[in-house]
Amino acid sequence: MKVKFLAAMGLAAALYSCDDQTTGIGQFVADGDQIEAFAETYPVKTATRTLDRVYSRSSTAYLGKFTDKEFGELKAGFLAQINCPEGYKFPERLEKIDSVTLEFYYNNYFGDSLASLRVKVKELETPFEDDGTHKEWYYTDYDFSNSNDWTYKSEPLGLKDYSAYDKTVSDSIHNTSNYYPSISVRVNEDFVNRLSEAAKEQQREGGEDYFKDAQTFINHVFPGFYAEITNGDGSIVYIEDIWLRMQAKYWIKNSAGDKDSLATTYIPFAASKEVFMSTNFHNANFDSQMQDEKGTYLKTPAGLCTEMTLPLQKIFESEHYQDTLNAVSISLPKYKNESESKYKMGTPSYLMLIQESEMIDFFEQNKTIDNKSSFIASYDSKTNSYSFTKLNRLISRIFSEIKPDKNTNNWDELEEQHKVLLIPVKISLDSQNNIIGVEHDLSVSSARLVRGTGDTEDIKMNIIYTRPKLH
Fold first, then answer.
1. Alpha helices of 137-228 — where are they, by DSSP H?
2. Which pTM does this prediction carry?
3. Distances in whole angstroms, Cα of residue 82 to Cα of each of 139, 142, 211, 213, 216
4. d(CA 385, CA 447)
């Protein structure tokens, strides 16, 4: 299990390049150049865990249905509100709003581009306001379609048959750089008339202004909508922009000012971060993946992650009890994707390692990576693996919390308490490539990792220790 390198000074130089913070297991901290360095490896135990609900306040909405041979059915729908620009005024002498469309724009999708699906859009019966007290609304297992908290008008707001690749648009347009594919749902006449009357009310002397801000618009005109798939299978679209587009007619004078004529304009209102949006997902069960004895799984969205049991007892009870932890790293090899599906899922780009007990607060409080309790690894296609470094900070943090000694006898309980999860995530970077945002990866992806038994070194933790030379 243990491998020692005796070229202490050369190894010490290497380890200092790994981490700029050394942390001790015991009370000793290495001092100066008179040190010895040792490398050890410890086997790590891993297992597949379900992530059937994750928190996500994503700016992307997901819509569709896809059935995979390996992972079964995935279905996505979303609830959203539309924002009204503050102080919005319709054109003077408005005649009417004569048509309205809901438009869902996307650049990316997963699955069969030609598969036909039907989306049904339902209008909320009553308004609501997200005041921050309903965290459950942002969990991906929350069922907006069947919950008693949400009621919808009996008549659908709109229906639309679509495919991810719009066959009604010519190939020449598809191939232009400014083409932005969308699903355009024409809404029913009742909604158009109600919207038109609300707009005219704004222009009546002493009339109510239902467009003065977003919440007034939501309370009196359009509470929101839920989009769901009612027919078809084969693709999931990643919706980046949602627009409520109104075609309005209004009267204008000609250049001579002696004749009225009707003009047409298009008025877009958008979904935005100032109002509510949340996607819910339904996954099939993952029985076969949970029973895999050689691999662990990552599956997004809201599907599977890998759990890791840290070898705390073996680290603490080694002969390095009083040495300093200089560097701790773990590499997780990935199996080659051998799926027979025509539409192979991509590999998650990033994994976050975090203690299970801290996961909920991390996402709900919009925290970011600190390399003390949370860590990021990117997928390396050259080595076909994910590698985490600087985990000495995590191990030392745990030891400082539990304060073990030679008489500690509840290691099984402690290792269970301090398990970590490896979760696929999406990151945001600033101009200097610093991570400024982390959220659950909700795109369609998967990976099968080599499983660690905890007894053999299929997955191993590599540790470099230092101690002062004795004179």
1. 171-174, 189-203, 214-220
2. 0.90
3. 20, 20, 12, 11, 11
4. 10
